[in-house]
Write a structure and sequence with these properties.
Length: 219
């Protein structure tokens, strides 16, 4: 059984060699667009969000334009995503917050970002990491699940615990891309119900796979 630090070293080495480029699959042109897209992406696929934002950004290309919109107008554009009523309200509130608090500019600080409607710690970390290349580890459902399954985290009860355990071992310069390594791995290989262990490149140092092999040997 590998120690935690050894497992991190092996994971970093594998992804550095085999996934040197890993980035968000959300389509955006600037920090405002990414903020909108990430808010929309909560419990919704990136594919669906990209379909929605293609039209959305033609209508609302800036915080100033979005701040003047009605909830009904925004709802009509985003109604195919999950929780459209709440998200419409949050998007308008976020736009107003950007104008009132930050002169329409998306801040780079995680705490400042969380002052905006609809922006929790995960969303704030995504913006800080992706747009500003800060060592902020965003923990979504994929990162939460994959980290525990692989063995990068242990008995993590919530996203904040996961975040703390991950940033303890990932070097700061690796954190922005490590976030995407884990998301993409969880989305396409280490899927929730039935992970594709046989085609997984990190199975040799995965805690879940180690336990799986051990169980087979004991039968």
């Amino acid at each position: 059984m590998l120690k935690t630090k050894e497992r991190f070293i092996a994971v970093i080495d594998y992804f550095t060699k085999n996934k040197p480029v890993a980035e968000t699959e959300l389509i955006y042109k600037d920090s405002f667009q990414l903020l909108v897209a990430v808010i929309l992406s909560a419990q919704c696929t990136d594919k669906r969000v990209n379909i929605i934002t293609q039209q959305f950004f033609k209508v609302y290309s800036s915080a100033k334009e979005l701040a003047l919109a009605s909830q009904e107008e925004v709802y009509e554009l985003i109604k195919s995503c999950s929780y459209p009523n709440n998200k419409a309200k949050n998007l308008i509130g976020m736009a107003n917050g950007l104008i009132q608090l930050f002169n329409g500019e998306v801040p780079s600080d995680v705490d400042e970002l969380q002052k905006l409607n609809g922006v929790g710690r995960k969303t704030a970390n995504v913006i800080a990491s992706v747009v500003f290349n800060k060592p902020a580890m965003a923990v979504d459902t994929h990162v939460f699940r994959v980290s525990e399954r692989i063995g990068l985290t242990t008995n993590s009860k919530n996203p904040l615990e996961t975040e703390k355990q991950l940033v303890k071992y990932f070097p700061e310069n690796i954190i922005p891309i490590a976030h995407h390594w884990l998301i993409l791995h969880g989305r396409y290989v280490c899927i929730a119900r039935k992970p594709k262990c046989e085609e997984c490149g990190i199975k040799e140092f995965c805690r879940y796979y180690e336990n799986k092999i051990r169980e087979k040997c004991e039968i």
